[in-house]
Amino acid sequence: MRIAIFRLGLMILAASCWTPSWAALNHNHSSIKALCKAYGFLLGQEYSLKRIEKAYPALRIQVEAARSTFESSFAGVKKALEQELIQAMGEASFQKFRGEMEKKSIQLLSQQQLNPMIVQEFLWQVKARAKGAEMDIDVLRYLLSVKYAKCPAAEFLDGFRQQFSTDGIEKAQGIKLKLQLPQSWLAEEGERPHIVKKWINEGGTGLSFIMLDIRDAEGYTPSALEIEQFVKSGKARQTFNNLGKVYDVGTFTIERCKGYWVDLSMIQERVGLRMYQRGVLYQLFFRGKAIGIMCMASANECDSQKADASAELIKPLCRQVVNSLVLEQAY
């Protein structure tokens, strides 16, 4: 068996993206700005609903229906946003910020014209927002990030998904596939030649990522039996032990193709900064190409337990993403 082909998995891992220090919700200038924007959006929406209730008492039931529809999807998100902002900027600074934001919302929104047609359109928009429509994508990403911080897989199960296709992408090397990913994860171009696309959590400001890698396997596609033997013989574990610590290995089948997965951790060093990464690599072969989907969480080397915990959180999500894979040329 041509074990060298399986070493492509190592190449995928070595090409993984680099991230700074880890946090439960990563707080930096970009993420705090996004949190503030999402919080301001909620304040503005609630002020507008209360204004409509006051101006049109007969529409109170319709207003409450719109509010309830939105809350059915984003219950508790406002409070969670407040906690994140308090953690990021401190209690005193947050209270000052909230006061200023409420004042600005009233000043701006109170000047907007109201009439029955505008009111009905707005109430329709509020209901549509419950499904992720009719709102700024940056706001939506952070509402979802906060809501599903403790259970990332639930975002996918609740239908907040984005679609991706390699059709027409040169890096895909002729492989046409489709994937579904959580909507709050920001898609970015891969820096390396074989990284087709990567997605970063928390709207691109987080420290977990999903990466799609497609490489030339020299025209070779191992059989299902060869994949099984590679795993059962211990050669898979031995191969990846050269890169980091292997916790478990196994096989999977999707689109009538047999592949293998590896649960592992590794240390990456760049310009003196040592990072710990933990996650799962899914690898399969199709039409002489190696297709890899990697899900990883990162942390400073001294804070590895946080990355381990984050990796456990995203593991069910990774399985859902892999299960969404459609190889269009397989039919």
CATH architecture assignment name of the largest domain: 3-Layer(aba) Sandwich
Count of the separate structural domains: 2
Outline the biggest β-sheet: 7 strands, antiparallel
Count of DSSP-assigned helices? 12
The side-by-side strand order for the widest beta sheet comes to: 3-4-5-9-8-7-6
**Structural class by SSE content:** alpha+beta
Can you count the beta strands? Answer: 10
Shape: elongated
What is the mean predicted local confidence, pLDDT?
90
Unreliable spans? 1-23
Oligomeric organization of the protein chains: single chain
Alpha carbon gyration radius: 23 Å
Cα-to-Cα separation, first versus last residue: 27 Å
* Beta-strand proportion: 15-25%
CATH class of the largest domain: Alpha Beta
Q: Helical proportion?
A: 40-55%
* CATH homolog superfamily of the largest domain: Mog1/PsbP, alpha/beta/alpha sandwich
Q: SSE string, helix = H, strand = E? A: HHHHHHHHHEEEEEHHEEEEHE
What distinguishing features does this structure have?
12 helices; 331 residues; Protein Transport Mog1p, Chain A; alpha+beta; single chain; 7-stranded antiparallel β-sheet
